[in-house]
Design brief:
Its EC number is 2.1.1.199. The protein is of the alpha/beta class. The chain is built from 13 helices and seven strands. Helix content is about 40%, strand content about 15%.
Length: about 325
């Protein structure tokens, strides 16, 4: 299984630039979305005093990471779980505070490229899309059981599908005759309802599959729960680095960092501050960091990636 999980770490040089650790003492890193271990491998090689707690909900990813990080076996621990649970996982491993946390949000290339995972509309496979295959909710189950209004919301909010209401109604009609089971079932429906995309636009099935994947894995909820937990875990001067691939994810990170770095949360219009808020973070990246031309040429999937970094100041 592990040999099928090959992954090119996105924004690797930028992660090394912004996620730094003290050289004069042992340090701890949590990689909450370990994947194949690419980012963590770079950090562990650069910092011999660094220990890693790697978390991922995909068993194939953890198996690959164990191979990739074998050179640092005495400094690594691996846990299968959701990164939103990182506070509890850290406590279970005796880690009260850490010096850095990395979250690389979204689906990985190995998951996309394996037809049996069902993440891509370009290959025939089951409508699965689970990052954690212990979960009961699959894309096919969601399509076959969710209310029409909920499907419309998923397509509109998570995929920004232009004809989301029309597509949701078509899904409900189609599943009464034949339940959705494989990727081609949904692709055929998308082609019939949404038609071909205009030049320069993403193919409609890409947006629909993206929306379902986000819903199946509760990706936005995971992120919203993880950010405050990660901030609490950081030592003073520890850094939280988040790589996102979707505008909704990036907005959540941007707004969280902004709010935690603000010195006042009073309602607008008050003549003086009465909240007494103390900022918890300092935003390190004034704007999102994106891939440069060289990386884009080597890895086209890095194009939507955005890195934001903040530092704990209390």
């Amino acid at each position: 299984m592990a040999e099928l999980f090959e992954h090119i770490p996105v924004l690797g040089a930028e992660v090394l630039e912004f996620l730094t650790f003290p050289a004069d003492r042992p340090a701890r890193l949590i990689d909450g979305t370990l994947g194949g271990g690419g980012h963590s491998a770079m950090l562990l090689r650069r910092y011999p005093q660094l220990a890693l707690l790697g978390i991922d909900r995909d068993e194939a990813a953890l198996a690959k990471a164990a191979e990739t990080l074998a050179f640092a076996s005495g400094r690594t621990r691996f846990v299968r779980g959701n990164y939103s649970e990182l506070a509890g996982i850290a406590a279970e491993n005796g880690w009260k505070k850490v010096d850095g946390i990395l979250l690389d949000i979204g689906v990985s290339s190995p998951q996309i490229d394996r037809p049996e995972r069902g993440f891509s509309w370009r290959a025939e496979g089951p409508l699965d899309m689970r990052m954690d295959r212990r979960s009961e909710l699959t894309a096919s189950r969601l399509l076959n059981t969710a209310a029409e209004r909920e499907l419309e919301r998923i397509f509109r909010e998570y995929g920004e599908v232009a004809k989301s209401r029309k597509l949701a109604a078509a899904v409900v009609r189609a599943r009464q005759e034949k339940p959705f089971a494989v990727t081609s079932d949904l692709v055929a429906l998308c082609d019939g309802v949404l038609g071909r995309s205009r030049p320069g636009q993403l193919p409609a099935p890409t947006l629909v599959f993206q929306a379902l994947r986000i819903a199946v894995n509760d990706e936005l909820g995971e992120l919203e729960r993880a950010l405050p937990a990660a901030t609490e875990l950081l030592n003073r001067e520890g850094r939280l680095a988040v790589i996102s691939f979707h505008s909704l994810e990036d907005r959540i990170v941007k707004n969280f960092f902004r709010d935690e770095a603000a010195s006042c949360s009073c309602p607008p219009g008050l003549p003086v501050c009465i909240c007494g808020k103390i900022p918890a973070l300092r935003v390190v990246t004034r704007k999102a960091v994106t891939a440069g031309p060289e990386e884009l040429e080597k890895n086209r999937r890095s194009a939507p990636a955005k890195l934001r970094v903040a530092e704990k100041i209390i």
